[in-house]
Design brief:
Layout: E1 6-10, E2 13-16, E3 22-23, E4 25-29, E5 32-35, H1 51-58, E6 64-68, H2 79-87, E7 91-95, H3 97-109, E8 114-119
Parallel strand pairs: 6-7, 6-8
Antiparallel strand pairs: 1-2, 2-3, 4-5, 4-8
Main location: cytoplasm
Subcellular location: Cytoplasm
GO cellular component, one term: cytoplasm
Length: 122
């Protein structure tokens, strides 16, 4: 099963190839995607992405996870989250969201078992 390509990105709007729904923030993994609702885990820009935000993507067997911090990189990724991912054996790549989407799509093109979480606004 392959990861779906991010078809388009603009402020507050993301489209995933093969999905009729558009997202503000989204999670993608081999075979699927869904909205990333920060209220599920109490996430805010600071302290930022928590391990709980990533669990459902990790359970899909990804080897690489790309995190998009927002168009202006307002979303933080604390060292504790990066350490958690490394202990799980996951290659984590953190970028401004436009660059994150480029990186993610390049990994999809290479056939990598990649997942991602993307914030499409600030």
């Amino acid at each position: 099963m392959t990861s779906p390509e991010i078809a388009s990105l603009s402020w507050g709007h993301m489209k995933v190839k093969g999905c009729s729904t558009s997202y503000k923030d989204c999670k993608v993994w081999p075979g699927g995607s869904r909205a990333w609702d920060w209220r599920e885990t109490g996430t805010n820009h600071y302290p930022g992405v928590q391990p709980a935000d990533l669990e459902d993507v990790l359970k899909k067997g990804v080897q690489t996870l790309v995190i998009g911090r927002g168009m202006n990189e307002a979303l933080q990724v604390p060292p504790s989250t990066l350490d958690y991912m490394k202990k799980q054996g996951i290659d984590v790549r953190v970028f401004q969201t436009e660059q994150a989407v480029k990186e993610y799509n390049a990994l999809v093109e290479q056939g990598a078992k990649v997942g991602g979480v993307f914030h499409s606004t600030c």
